[in-house]
Amino acid sequence: MKRLHIFVSGMVQGVFFRQSTAMKAREFGLKGWVRNQRDGRVELVCEGNEDSLHTMIAWCEKGPKGAFVDSVDTRWEEFNGEFNNFKIVY
What we know:
Distance between the termini: 26 Å
Number of domains: 1
Radius of gyration: 12 Å
Largest sheet: 5 strands, mixed
């Protein structure tokens, strides 16, 4: 099990990015959270198996319909199992 911290830049707010991310994370069996940042990025932290986390990175590089992703910055972190589900943080 691994933990991944992701920042997605581009036109990623106001296009259901958080909602779509939460749905995909649950589909991929990941736990964690997603939120908008004041600077226009979307931030997410997720935990799960490494293959599922790589699948999440690939999904974030495209995002949902209507999103225009410029970059996806990732940081691998130590798994700590703190999450029970995947949620949207407001």
